Fold:
Amino acid sequence: MPWVDEELCNGCGLCVEECPVDTIVMNDDVADIEMADCIRCGICHDICPTEAIKHDRLKVPEEVRANVVKTEALMEACEEYLGDPRERQKCLVRTVRHFENMKMIAEKTLAELEKLMK
Ligand code: SF4
Ligand code: SF4
Structure:
């Protein structure tokens, strides 16, 4: 999904005008994309004069770090609320399983999408 680098957005509003599903608004002179309605057409990427609209791939390191921080917080909470230090590892195992499931969903989805490629 596209996202806006606020430092680069000059508030010109071109992306707001060109988005075919009107899912970009201006907030304090900075473009803001409502992701739920985005159809991934790519127009905003192409017309932005300052290259402020970025691809989600650039957020991968940030999202990985957020997942690790969240997992550490969950481990801490499991130990605290269940009153047993061994719950930390159990929580970690469950979280690893969660991400393995996500990986399986992504791999199977990619395999299905490959079939749509002409
Ligand atoms: S086109 Fe680019 S610079 Fe202009 S408002 Fe949109 S994101 Fe900001
Ligand atoms: S990718 Fe297309 S639909 Fe999504 S925000 Fe940009 S212009 Fe709008």
